Amino acid sequence: MRYPVQIENVDGIMVVRDDLIQGGSKRRVLAPVMENLRNRHGYSEFVYGGPAEGYAQLALAYAAQEIGANATYFVAKRKVLHPYTREAKQTGCRIAEVEFGRLNVVKSRARRYCQENGAFLFPFGFSMPEFEARLTEEIREALEPIQPSEIWCVAGSGLLSRCLQSAVPTARVNAVRIGTPPSVGGATLFEAPEKFAEPAEIAPPFPSCTNYDAKAWRFIKQRASEGALFWNVGR
């Protein structure tokens, strides 16, 4: 399924409203990547290990539902499921909770599970060549009529910032780090003052993931030029 890019002017900033897509920006290309892996290599189950606040679990859940595949998300066990994890579970994703699961332990358990069960393990941020190439092309097509000179995004793994740079090489790309050091290529990197699990102190006036994308808004309000573009990944 193709999703048109919807852009809205908010306080002089062009905002890509991928919060309107169930699963956010990475849902755009995840289903066809999964279909290719299934058709070419026979995978029937797709796995990701990440934090409870991670938006990847929603992209994984909705993409798997779209193509009729099995999905499993490894996450640290909590007393109460995070709302994203609960939504992923309701969408059909199997949730594998890891006792006392620091992120490196969660990823290790996911890797071992895939080795033992023949499932496909997605890397952090879905950072793999086919995924990056597909997302870059979608961004290029969407932004070609606009050609923004300045772009803002949040960097978890850094994949989105790299795709934005490849898709619009003439733009100045600014990325806001929210956790572990991302790989942002030539983007200018800022660092959110909030801890990873904390919500954004300054939230934008539209639905935005409070632990991720929303943390860029303070920098946009302080530093962005009139007409800059912000790529909002999820709600």
Describe this structure in words.
This protein has 235 residues and is α/β, with parallel strands linked by helices. It has two domains: 7-22 and 128-232, Rossmann fold (3-Layer(aba) Sandwich); 27-126, Rossmann fold. It has helices at residues 27-41, 56-67, 83-90, 103-117, 129-143, 159-167, 217-223, and strands at residues 7-10, 13-17, 45-49, 70-76, 94-98, 120-121, 150-155, 172-177, 188-191, 229-232. The strands form two sheets. The chain has a six-stranded mixed beta sheet with strand order 1-2-10-7-8-9, covered by helices on one side. Helix 2 links the parallel strand 3 (45-49) and strand 4. The mean pLDDT is 93.
Which band does the percent of strand residues land in?
Answer: 15-25%
CATH topology of the largest domain: Rossmann fold
Largest sheet: 6 strands, mixed
Strand adjacency order, main sheet: 1-2-10-7-8-9
Question: Could you list some keywords that capture this structure?
Answer:
2 domains, alpha/beta, 4-stranded parallel beta sheet, 7 helices, 10 strands, globular, 6-stranded mixed beta sheet, Rossmann fold, single chain, 235 residues, 20% strand
Fold topology:
Elements: E1 7-10, E2 13-17, H1 27-41, E3 45-49, H2 56-67, E4 70-76, H3 83-90, E5 94-98, H4 103-117, E6 120-121, H5 129-143, E7 150-155, H6 159-167, E8 172-177, E9 188-191, H7 217-223, E10 229-232
Parallel strand pairs: 2-10, 3-4, 3-6, 4-5, 7-8, 7-10, 8-9
Antiparallel strand pairs: 1-2
Helix pairs in contact: 1-2, 1-5, 2-3, 5-6
